[in-house]
Specification:
about 30% helix, Alpha-Beta Plaits, elongated, about 180 residues, 2 domains
């Protein structure tokens, strides 16, 4: 009985090795097939199917990209900052004499910490923050990952224009918020 058990064990061992070799060959066949089919002879690169810089990636309607923020309707309740599980939203506000509410002077999101969970958008009472469809905000320094939406022009912050690294870099030189907020002059 011991000899047949050992023979069965060796048979199963060889069977597992054969199965792993066949699985690896199948995976390499798919990988090499894609690699060869994407070769572009004029450019001598493998970009036929994945032409990211020239042709932007297709974004689905429910994609959660970089935030969009409407400073004109924000009431400064800081609910988004409280709901953020990684504490990447920093809001600075001040009271404005002669009217109700606050003036949001700074609304910073630190994208080095943000995990794009969209919890900040769910409980906003005035729907002034939502997830946009921008997927690329590449920059060369960590300072470029700190986006102050109060300093961005409204058409970029709210989503009518593209949120891009150049606009974020230019907003670093703006000293005052671009809008007074709700009820402002």
């Amino acid at each position: 009985m011991g000899l047949s058990y050992v023979a069965f064990g060796i048979f199963r061992w060889w069977q597992n090795i054969a199965l792993s070799v066949v699985t690896t060959i199948r995976a390499l066949k798919v990988t090499l097939g894609t690699w060869v089919s994407t070769y572009h002879p004029a450019r001598r690169t493998f970009t036929h199917q994945y032409e990211y810089p020239e042709r932007p990636a297709q974004v689905t309607p429910r994609y959660r990209g970089f935030h969009r923020f409407d400073l004109t309707s924000c009431i400064g309740c800081e609910r988004c900052a409280r709901d953020c599980p990684v504490s990447c939203i920093y809001i600075t506000k001040e009271r404005v004499p002669g009217r109700k509410g606050f003036r949001v002077t700074s609304f910073v999101i630190d994208y080095t910490k943000c995990m794009f969970c969209a919890y900040c958008t769910e409980n906003c009472p005035v729907d002034c923050i939502f997830m946009g469809s921008t997927y690329d905000l590449s920059c060369y320094s960590r300072d470029g990952c700190l986006v102050d939406f109060a300093k961005l022009p409204l058409e970029i912050a709210w989503g009518r224009a593209s949120l891009n690294p150049t606009a974020v870099a230019l907003s670093k030189s703006v000293l005052e918020p671009v809008d007074e907020g709700p009820g402002g002059a």
